Amino acid sequence: MSEFPKHPVLPAELLERWLPRAFAEADLPADVRASAMRLGLRLEGAGGGEWVLSIEKGDLRVNAAPRDDTAFTFVQSVDDWRGALWEGRGGAIGKAAAGLFRPGAANAAAGPAAMGGAPSPAALEQMRSLDGLVRIIVRGGTGGDFAVGFKLGPGPIPAQPSATLSLDANDAAAMERGELDPLAAFMAGRIRIDGDMGLVMQMQAISMQAAAQAKKA
Fold first, then answer.
1. Is 2 a domain residue?
2. Degrees to nearest 5, angle at CA 166 with 165 and 169
3. Which of 6, 72, 138, 141 is the most buried (most CB within 10 A)?
4. What is the pTM assigned to this prediction?
């Protein structure tokens, strides 16, 4: 498989050149190969921009294009995107978000969108009916706070998040090591939700329903 760049590169280079090739060469599950989905990506800052990632007939295409019509869009600063990919920032949240950009990597987290991962194809289209921006912030880690956001539903990205989930960097690291369950952390108040909690619950419910249906299939 194509070796992941050892040092940070421009987003366009990784996304448009390396990622489709790595996807084609990766040993991925058959259901991932057979899926059809479109994700949006906005990276903010120097070297950033907007892209649409499309999986169709086993191939991944990445185009620099407006993401306004996608049902789900990753929103992140270029610095935090690089921090997750090359510096291990963000604990379990950073690992889940970075998993999209490292196909086939050992233990690449795909897990629920509410914990930083990409939604499943089944959940994706249901999220098209939602509208809002959810931001996750990991506070106090090496390099400062780490954040990733998700625009749910098509349309413009709001200037301010509809809901913010925040947790301590130590708890995010414990989740990555498997020592802390996200649900237990939430119930204990170690994950804080500010803003539209209903939007977060809808996103989580869609992810859980899609996962349950996939197990029955």
1. no
2. 140
3. 138
4. 0.90
